[in-house]
Design a protein that fits this description.
globular; alpha/beta; 35% strand; 8 helices; Rossmann fold
Length: 257
């Protein structure tokens, strides 16, 4: 099977068209103001995908870097940045989010759309958090979101879905293993060609459930403290049926002490 994002890149934003990136960016900025003692000027979008959040923050004046491992997703992101006249304001890098390198430090790192759940190896996620800490200034912020236990259990589960957008639809079958916290996704993508016929491509992906306790422990091991957890773009505490958690952490370095 082919890699999910190599195939999905041209259609990714169509399937996620309902996402309100403006409100999400408002929420990120509110956390910048609330938890960072200074001005956030430079931001890394880790696992930036097609760059929707990268561009949204760049429009607001931030010096942006976007990192993703998929050249296809980055190609879409670069095209979007060029069309928006933001290509000189954004540096896109093709790197593994668990082994990335920057040219300097940043005040904030964001990681959106459950990208953390796609790192299914705990040791690899710890390495990711290590590099996040490494490239944050003292007191810098790490803001990310994860899918909740409720979503893994009740929304993913062993269910099947059909997603549809213009000239493409996707048949999606899940297989969730509660004991391991692993959910496998088997997708068949049907895209319409210029001749009107549909081509089928089968792709595979998996995610891992991380509890809040496990994330807090991983952050602490990599010298970051968890400051806040919400279930929405505001002060909404996690609830039993929350599908997503939004976490804000701070880098602790010698300069903070």
């Amino acid at each position: 099977m082919k890699d999910l994002y190599a195939v999905l890149a041209p259609f990714y934003d169509s399937f996620n068209g309902e996402l309100d990136y403006g409100s999400w960016a408002d929420f990120l900025e509110e956390n910048f103001r609330r938890y960072y003692d200074g001005k956030v000027a430079s931001v890394l979008d880790l696992g930036c995908g097609t760059g929707r959040m990268t561009l949204e923050l760049a429009k607001r004046g931030y010096d942006m870097t976007g990192i993703d491992s998929s050249p296809q997703m980055l190609s879409v992101a670069r095209d979007a940045a060029e069309k928006a006249g933001l290509d000189r304001q954004i540096l896109f890098l093709q790197q593994d989010m668990c082994e990335f390198e920057l040219y300097g430090t940043v005040e904030a790192i964001v990681c959106c759309l459950d990208t953390v759940n796609h790192v299914t190896d705990r040791a690899a996620l710890s390495r990711c958090f290590h590099w996040v800490h490494n490239y944050l200034v003292p007191g810098g912020l790490f803001l990310f979101d994860v899918n909740s236990p409720y979503k893994f259990r009740e929304v993913y589960g062993d269910r099947a879905y059909l997603l549809e957008a213009e000239n493409v639809f996707c048949a999606w079958q899940n297989l969730y293993r509660p004991r391991s916290g692993i959910c496998d996704f088997y997708l068949s993508l049907f895209s319409r060609g210029e001749d009107g016929r549909y081509d089928r491509t089968d792709v595979y992906r998996r995610e891992r459930l991380y509890t809040l306790a496990a994330l807090r422990r991983l952050l602490r091991e990599n010298r970051m403290e968890l400051l806040a957890v919400t279930s929405g773009y505001g002060d909404f505490p996690p609830a039993p049926e929350s599908e997503r958690y939004y976490l804000t952490a701070r880098a602790i370095k010698e300069e903070n002490i």
